[in-house]
Model the fold of this input.
Amino acid sequence: MAWGSEKVQSPPSTIRQLLPLIITLVVLGAVAWVGYLVYQSVVKIQAQARKQMGENVTFSKDGMRVNVQGMGAESYLDRTQSWVVKAWELGTGSSTNGQHEATRRKRNVLTKPKPGEAQQHR
Done:
């Protein structure tokens, strides 16, 4: 009597077979849509930055490069180096007069004179 006790299983329905494929396509579509929106935002930001900064800014895969307009490389280095030298001299107090001047400046910044007092300049 084992013949009648076997259950015949029906094959899974077509919708049940396609459900994982549909879910995968929906997830991939959502990821693609978010990627597209990010791409559009980057392009708009890049265009706005290029518009505001002018022709002296170049965007590349390595990053952003800014060109200094109307100034040669040597002139730029001279100017920046002069500021560094001035800051170094004021910070170290290499000369007596420079040290006195730096101390006076620090004192003026820390203690503001009252409106009725006159500042002394040497």
